[in-house]
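User: What would this chain look like folded?
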Amino acid sequence: MEQASVGARDEQDGSGVILPLRDAGGSSDAVSDDLRAEGAGQPEQPAQPERPVGLLAVWRASRARRKALRAEVRRFTVRQRRRRALWVSAIGAILVVAGVTAAVAYSPLFAVERVRVVGAVQLDAGGVEAALASQLGTPLPLVDEAAIQDTLSDFPFVQSYTLEARPPHELVVRIVERTPIGAIASASGYSVVDAAGVVLAASTEPPAGEPVLDVRGGVDGDAFAAVGRVMRALPASIGDQVTAVSATSAFDVTLTLTSSSRVVWGSAEESAMKARVLETVMAARPADTVTEYDVSSPDAVVIR
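Assistant: Here's the prediction, encoded as structure tokens.
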């Protein structure tokens, strides 16, 4: 018989290996206790103090951060910068072209060498061109329009005009002439006038081809204004036959034709329609077969 030991026996597993007994104090692992004992016997390592950051390192970090930020900004704004550069280039090119054009235009390369008058019928175009000779040698953009206006004011037949520069050397003056409507008799002779009462010419004898106007109130009255409207509405086929015009008011304009027949016109209202009706009637009944045409009411023409 085996003898019992003071403590518990060593436990044996099925393979015959003898396992060490637990200590009497009830600790779980003797080996772990030994390791803890060994660690407890060694002194603790002191904590390493943090190394202070210098100003140079801070500056370098800040500089790197700024460079990175600028790179990001450039990356996100590259399209905008390209568009801005394109606009600047285009504007610069336009300014250069404009500057060169202005320099050339204001140079003697574009000086006036010829003045040509267009639209003159009753005026002598050559005489008007000679009067404007002071503009010769002037660059086209520097033509003195005030001087031209002052010169053309000496020609009563000029009602209006326009200037047209034709590079490199021609200045065209387009004239709209006043249309005379007749001659007004006075103590000193006859004055040819237009519908506005502007005197275009004067003579001591009745001017050929112009009807004599007998209008009460002069050129400033309503009767003259009505006569002017009537004469401007007449077609050339009738106007050439008028030898005299009379009016005591704006409502009783009367024309006398070369055949001595009369045309009772009445007021200047519906003058265009009255002119068309009269032209038609005169084609059917010529003036040398009629004493009077009354077109004061164009819807009911009376022939006597």
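The helical segments are 30-41, 55-76, 78-105, 125-131, 145-152, 222-233, 236-239, 271-284. If you want, I can go into more detail on any region.
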